[in-house]
C-alpha cells in the first residue's frame, strides 16, 4: 500500500503539467542515428531536453567495443557510474542492496576488470586493485565504453575486459545546464541532488567546468538465522539445530562532492589538453545488531525481568573520509614523420576511517555483564604517476605503425591500528538500559594505546616500464590491428609488523602480451569482430604482505607471499553485430578465457596457531581455470511496427567457468550463471513527455574459501520514470528505483578446519537477508 501511494504521488506530480509541447518540439525527429559523429560541440539544450530516444552506439574501432552515451542512461537518473552500468551487458555486482560499487565484468571478481577514467587508471582503497564505480557521479559522464578484448596500446590488466569511463570535456558541450532535485528513501529520509555543467570557448581553447553534490543514504534492514553443528553426513546447507537470531539496522549516510574541469586548444599541427577531476566522500556507516536466543521473540536481556531472550547488543560506527583526484595532460603533434602523442597523469587516493565496535554480552554468568569495545584507525595513501609516449606513422595506403612506451610509479602506504577497552557496565546504564533505545555505542569507553595490527603497517612501491608496438589497417571491408606489449614490473614491499628479517621483499616480473583484432563488414548492416589477446591480473596487496594473520581463515592462519606472480590468461572474443534501420543495433558475442598461474590458497603443511588440525595457509600460483559465455544485446526503436517513438532495450549474458581448488571443481567465486536487463522508453512528442521502465535480474552466485562458503541471490530490480519537457530548456523527471523491494539473501557455511570443510562438519550455518526499500527521485534539469 505504501509503494502504491508513493507511485501515485510521483506520477501525479508530473502529470499535472502535461500540456501539449510547443510546435517546434513536435517537429523533432523521434530517433538518432548513433553512427553519425560530429566534431561540433553538443548544445546544452540537447542534453537537458532529449526529445529523442538514444540508443547504443556502433563503434568503428577494430576492437570489440560497446559504447553508451550518457543520454542512454539519463532518463533513469543514475546517481553513480555504477548505477549506470547496471544496464549494460555482462556487468554484475555483489554489492549491498541499493549500491553498485565493485563492477564484475562477465561476473568475475572486480580485480579482473580494468577500470579506466578517460583512458587512464586511477587508484582506490581496495586491496585487489579494483576501483569502486560509486566514486564517480553519473552527472560527470560523457559516455561509457565496454572493451571486451585487449590492445597493445593499453595495460594488459584486463582479463575480463575494460570499462572506460569518459568524462565530459570542453569539446563536447556548448552552454550550460543545472540539475536540481532530491531523493526520498523508504524511511522518509530526504537527500539533495545538485549539479551544474558549463562548456564553451575561453580564449584560444574550449573549457568545461562541472560540479556535483549528491546526498547518499541507504537504510538497510538485515536479519540472520544461525544454526549450530550439523548432523553427520550432511552435504549441503541442511541443519535444524537453531542457535541464535540476529536483527540488524544498517544505515549508510553521507554526501559526495565532485568537480570536473578540462581545457583544450586545437592548433593546426598541435593539440593540447589538460584536465582533472576530484571526488570527496564524507560518509558514516552505523549498525545496531541484537542477537536473540529465540527465532521470533523481542524480549529483553538474558536474566532480565522482562524475559531473557536478548543474548548480545552490538553497535558499530564508521566515520569515512575519502578523497580521490586525478590530473592529466595530453599533447598531440602532427609533423612530417607522423603523429606523436605525449600523456602524463597524477592520481591520488586518500582514505581515513575511524571504526568503533562495542558489544554487551548478556549470555554470561558475570554480574554485571562486561562489555568489550574496539576502535580501529585506517589510513590509506595511494599515489600513481604515469607518463606515456606514442608515435604513429603511415607506411603506405591505410596501414599505420604505432609504437611507444609507458612508465608508472605507484606508492601505497597503509597504516591500520587498533585499541581495545574492557569494563563493567555502569549502574546508571544498567538501570536505564532499553534494548530498543540507546545502544552500547553510547557508553563512550576509554581505549588503551593504539597499536598497529598485524599486516597493517606497510609500504608498497611498484614501478612499471612498458613498451609496445602495433600495426593497424583499414580497407573497405576489414579494419584490423595486431600488436604486442612488454610489461616489466618491479615491486618492493616493507611491512613493519613482522620480524625485521622478513619485513622487506623485492620482486620483478616481465610479461609479453600479444593481441590482435579484426572487424569484418559483411554488408552495410552486418559485421563480425574477432579478437584474441593475452592479459594478466596482478596479485592482491594483502596477499603480497609477508605478515602472518592468525585465525584469518576459520581456525587456520594466513601467511602472505611476496613472491606471487601475476595470473595470466589467453582469451578469444567472436562477435556478430547487425544494424537495424538508422537507430537499432543487435549483437551477439562469444568469449573464452584460459587462466594460468591462478592464485589459490594452498596448505603449507605447517601447524596453525590453534594447534592440531589447523594449518598455516598461503596464497600460491597453484591453479588453472577457464571462463566462457555468450552475450546478447539489443537496442532499437519499433519503427518496423510503425512505432518510431517506442524504444526497447535488452541484454542477456549466460556465464560459466571452471576452476580447481582444495575441495574440487567450482566456478570462479561470485560469478552468476546469468544476468539480463529488459527495458523500454515511450516518447509522447505531442505532449513533450515520456515514460519508461527497466527490469534487471542476475542469477545466484557461490563463493568457496577456506573456512567459509557463501551462496548469494538477489531479487529482481524494477525502475520506472516519467518526464515532462518544457520547450527547449527544462525537463522535470520522476524516477522510482528498487520498486520490487529487492532482497539480497546469503547462505553461509562456516567451518573450523579444512578437514571439517571436506567432511561437511559445520561449525555454523547462517541464513541472512537484507532489504532497503524503494527510492524515489524528483529531478529538474534546466539549460542556460
Automatic annotation (TrEMBL):
Residues 59-162 form the TonB-dependent receptor plug domain. PANTHER family: PLUG DOMAIN-CONTAINING PROTEIN, TONB-DEPENDENT RECEPTOR-LIKE BETA-BARREL DOMAIN-CONTAINING PROTEIN. It comes from Sphingomonas sabuli. It is found in: Cell outer membrane. Residues 238-249 have a biased composition (Acidic residues). Residues 478-639 form the Outer membrane protein beta-barrel domain. Keywords: Cell outer membrane, Membrane, Signal. Residues 1-25 form the signal peptide. Residues 23-43, 220-252, 283-304 are annotated as: Disordered. This is Outer membrane beta-barrel protein. Residues 283-293 have a biased composition (Basic and acidic residues). InterPro entries: Beta-barrel_TonB_sf, OMP_b-brl_3, Plug_dom, Plug_dom_sf. Pfam families: OMP_b-brl_3 (PF14905), Plug (PF07715). One of its GO terms (cellular component) is cell outer membrane.
Amino acid at each position: 500500500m505504501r509503494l502504491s501511494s508513493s507511485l501515485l504521488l510521483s506520477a501525479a506530480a508530473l502529470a499535472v503539467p502535461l500540456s501539449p509541447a510547443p510546435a517546434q518540439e513536435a517537429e523533432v525527429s523521434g530517433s538518432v542515428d548513433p553512427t553519425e559523429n560530429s566534431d561540433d560541440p553538443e548544445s546544452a539544450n540537447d542534453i537537458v531536453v532529449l526529445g529523442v530516444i538514444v540508443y547504443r552506439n556502433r563503434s568503428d574501432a577494430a576492437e570489440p567495443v560497446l559504447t553508451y552515451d550518457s543520454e542512454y542512461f539519463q532518463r533513469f537518473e543514475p546517481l553513480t557510474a555504477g548505477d549506470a552500468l547496471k544496464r549494460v551487458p555482462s556487468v554484475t555486482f555483489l554489492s549491498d542492496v541499493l549500491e553498485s560499487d565493485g563492477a564484475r565484468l562477465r561476473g568475475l571478481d572486480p580485480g579482473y576488470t580494468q577500470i579506466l577514467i578517460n583512458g587512464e587508471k586511477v587508484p582506490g582503497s581496495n586491496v585487489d586493485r579494483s576501483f569502486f564505480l560509486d566514486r564517480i557521479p553519473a552527472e560527470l559522464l560523457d559516455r561509457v565504453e565496454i572493451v571486451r578484448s585487449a590492445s597493445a596500446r593499453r595495460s594488459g590488466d584486463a582479463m575480463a575486459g575494460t570499462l572506460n569511463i569518459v568524462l565530459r570535456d570542453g569539446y563536447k558541450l556548448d552552454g550550460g545546464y543545472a540539475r536540481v532535485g532530491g531523493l526520498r528513501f523508504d524511511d522518509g529520509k530526504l537527500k539533495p541532488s545538485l549539479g551544474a555543467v558549463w562548456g564553451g570557448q575561453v580564449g584560444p581553447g574550449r573549457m568545461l567546468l562541472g560540479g556535483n553534490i549528491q546526498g547518499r543514504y541507504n537504510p538497510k534492514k538485515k536479519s540472520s538465522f544461525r544454526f549450530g553443528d550439523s548432523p553427520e553426513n550432511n552435504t549441503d546447507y541442511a541443519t535444524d539445530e537453531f542457535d541464535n537470531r540476529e536483527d540488524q539496522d544498517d544505515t549508510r549516510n553521507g554526501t559526495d562532492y565532485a568537480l570536473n574541469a578540462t581545457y583544450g586548444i586545437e592548433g593546426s599541427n598541435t593539440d593540447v589538453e589538460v584536465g582533472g577531476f576530484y571526488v570527496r566522500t564524507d560518509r558514516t556507516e552505523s549498525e545496531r545488531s541484537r542477537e536473540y536466543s529465540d527465532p521470533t521473540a523481542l524480549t529483553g536481556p538474558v536474566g532480565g525481568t522482562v524475559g531473557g531472550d536478548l543474548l548480545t547488543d552490538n553497535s558499530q560506527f564508521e566515520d569515512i573520509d575519502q578523497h580521490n583526484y586525478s590530473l592529466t595532460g595530453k599533447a598531440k603533434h602532427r609533423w612530417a614523420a607522423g603523429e606523436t602523442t605525449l600523456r602524463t597523469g597524477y592520481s591520488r587516493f586518500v582514505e581515513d576511517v575511524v571504526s568503533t565496535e562495542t558489544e554487551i554480552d548478556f549470555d554470561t554468568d558475570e554480574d554485571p555483564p562486561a562489555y568489550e569495545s574496539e576502535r580501529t584507525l585506517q589510513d590509506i595513501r595511494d599515489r600513481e604517476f604515469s607518463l606515456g609516449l606514442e608515435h604513429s606513422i603511415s607506411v603506405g595506403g591505410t596501414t599505420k605503425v604505432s609504437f611507444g612506451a609507458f612508465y608508472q610509479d605507484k606508492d601505497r602506504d597503509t597504516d591500520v591500528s587498533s585499541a581495545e577497552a574492557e569494563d563493567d557496565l555502569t549502574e546508571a546504564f544498567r538501570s536505564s538500559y532499553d534494548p530498543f533505545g540507546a545502544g552500547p555505542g553510547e557508553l563512550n569507553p576509554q581505549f588503551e594505546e593504539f597499536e598497529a595490527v598485524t599486516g597493517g603497517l606497510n609500504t608498497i612501491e611498484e614501478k612499471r616500464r612498458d613498451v609496445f608496438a602495433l600495426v593497424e589497417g583499414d580497407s573497405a571491408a576489414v579494419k584490423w590491428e595486431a600488436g604486442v606489449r612488454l610489461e616489466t614490473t618491479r615491486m618492493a614491499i616493507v611491512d613493519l609488523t613482522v620480524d625485521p628479517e622478513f619485513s622487506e621483499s623485492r620482486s620483478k616480473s616481465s610479461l609479453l602480451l600479444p593481441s590482435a583484432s579484426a572487424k569484418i563488414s559483411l554488408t552495410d548492416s552486418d559485421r563480425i569482430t574477432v579478437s584474441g589477446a593475452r592479459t594478466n591480473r596482478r596479485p592482491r596487496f594483502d596477499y603480497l604482505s609477508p605478515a602472518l594473520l592468525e585465525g584469518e581463515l576459520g581456525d587456520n592462519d594466513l601467511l602472505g607471499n611476496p613472491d606471487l606472480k601475476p595470473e595470466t590468461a589467453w582469451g578469444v572474443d567472436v562477435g556478430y553485430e547487425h544494424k537495424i534501420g538508422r537507430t537499432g543495433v543487435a549483437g551477439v558475442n562469444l568469449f573464452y578465457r584460459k587462466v594460468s598461474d591462478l592464485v589459490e590458497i594452498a596448505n603449507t603443511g605447517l601447524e596453525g596457531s590453534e594447534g592440531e588440525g589447523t594449518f598455516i595457509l598461503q596464497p600460491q600460483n597453484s591453479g588453472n581455470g577457464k571462463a566462457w559465455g555468450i552475450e546478447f544485446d539489443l537496442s532499437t526503436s519499433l519503427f518496423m511496427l510503425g512505432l518510431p517513438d517506442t524504444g526497447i532495450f535488452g541484454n542477456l549474458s549466460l556465464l560459466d567457468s571452471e576452476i580447481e581448488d582444495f575441495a574440487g571443481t567450482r566456478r570462479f567465486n561470485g560469478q552468476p550463471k546469468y544476468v539480463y536487463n529488459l527495458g523500454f522508453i515511450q516518447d509522447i512528442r505531442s505532449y513533450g513527455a515520456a515514460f519508461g521502465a527497466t527490469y534487471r535480474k542476475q542469477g545466484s552466485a557461490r563463493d568457496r574459501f577456506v573456512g567459509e562458503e557463501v551462496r548469494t541471490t538477489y531479487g529482481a530490480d524494477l525502475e520506472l520514470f516519467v518526464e515532462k519537457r518544457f520547450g527547449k530548456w527544462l525537463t522535470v523527471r520522476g524516477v522510482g528505483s528498487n520498486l520490487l523491494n529487492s532482497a539480497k539473501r546469503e547462505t553461509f557455511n562456516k567451518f573450523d578446519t579444512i578437514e571439517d570443510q571436506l567432511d561437511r562438519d559445520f561449525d555454523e550455518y547462517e541464513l541472512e537477508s537484507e532489504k532497503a526499500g524503494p527510492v524515489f527521485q524528483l529531478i529538474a534539469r534546466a539549460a542556460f
